[in-house]
Design a protein that fits this description.
- The protein has helices at 24-51, 57-79, 89-113, 116-123, 126-137, 144-164, 172-195, 201-215, 220-229, 232-257, 262-268, 272-284, 290-307.
- The longest helix has 28 residues, at 24-51.
- 72% of the residues lie in helices and 0% in strands.
- The protein is an all-alpha fold and 319 residues long.
- The chain is globular and about 40 Å long.
Length: 319
């Protein structure tokens, strides 16, 4: 009989199957980990814009995931983590295919076909889908605060998208790819949550990233060809994407997800568009207008509303 292993990166007890009120002492580390994830994922959009000028969507996804797999494998080797137990594999494989693989390729490709505002609006349906799927498959419920926060944040994304879309182009293919990215992201998060009950965040992230790498292997020839003629800054940005927004940020995300509901944690990613706008200001010279700033403020207000604790002992699970 195999005993479920937990790597030393995640020494806490296995969380129960059902939802439970978050303890303040447990929520602080989870919130800090989520903050690291949000900042690094926001930086990824800036890095993708540089690397994407020299690498096609599939090649960029493979290069990013190869780098991430190498870094995560080294972390796991140093910490002495073993293979995941059998019970964790369905969630790892599903999240690896949907999130690390399909989401990464679809997002890279979709952002070439639609303007930035449309992409932001479509991809950010993901947190709403996470809340709905979490309620259906994880028994998390839909508290009023979470639902209201998602609605406010999505309205903020719509405002940001409108401010960024002036005169932009869109295609049916691009819209479908962005929606596919949102579905892959949401499905991957909901699939990952049960796996974290059986093994640690580092193990789940490492093997999920390896699964996504396998999905992207058909682009290996393209990656080799493009790497030979790509400028050094583009290649360095691809490596950065693999080390920080992938290896580090996905691990801190899994750490936080093991200690939070999928719906509430998914809502925190509405802070990403705000940070992208702020990061693009000094690095790309893209000055945000008043409408963009107003939309960003709505996004942050929605995140704050969604993160507010709404359950008390003895209160009903659904708002």
């Amino acid at each position: 009989m195999t005993t479920p292993s937990r790597d030393t990166a995640d020494p806490s007890p296995i969380p129960p199957a059902g939802p439970s009120p978050a303890r303040p002492s447990a929520s602080r580390p989870a919130l800090a980990a989520a903050a690291v994830t949000v900042v690094l994922w926001a930086s990824a959009f800036v890095a993708i814009r540089s690397a994407g000028t020299a690498y096609s969507p599939g090649a960029l996804a493979l290069g990013r995931l190869l780098t991430g797999s190498l870094v995560l494998g080294l972390f796991l080797l140093v910490r002495g983590g073993g293979r995941p137990p059998r019970a964790a594999w369905p969630g790892i494989l599903c999240s690896g295919v949907l999130w690390f693989g399909i989401y990464t390729i679809a997002l890279n490709w979709g952002e070439r076909e639609v303007d930035a505002g449309t992409a932001a609006l479509l991809v950010n349906t993901g947190p709403i889908l996470i809340a709905l799927l979490g309620a259906r498959f994880l028994g998390e419920g839909l508290p009023r605060g979470l639902f209201a926060g998602l609605a406010v944040s999505f309205a903020g994304v719509a405002v940001v998208g409108l401010s960024m879309s002036g005169g932009g182009r869109s295609s049916v293919l691009g819209v479908l790819l962005c929606l596919l990215a949102a579905v892959g992201y949401a499905g991957g998060v909901v699939a990952q949550k049960p796996a974290l009950r059986h093994t640690g965040a580092l193990t789940v992230t490492c093997y999920g990233c390896l699964t996504g790498t396998v999905v992207c292997l058909p682009f290996a020839g393209t990656l080799v060809s493009e790497a030979g003629r790509a400028p050094l800054p583009a290649t360095l940005n691809m490596v950065y994407l693999g080390v920080f927004p992938t290896a580090v940020a996905f691990t801190t995300w899994a750490f936080a997800l093991a200690r939070s509901t999928a719906g509430r944690l998914g809502a925190t990613t509405y802070a990403v568009p705000v940070l992208v706008v702020l990061m693009s200001w000094p690095t790309l010279g893209e000055v945000p207008g008043p409408l963009t700033l107003a939309g960003g403020a709505l996004c942050l207000a929605g995140v704050a509303l969604a993160r507010r604790p709404t359950l008390r002992p003895g209160s009903p699970g659904r708002g």
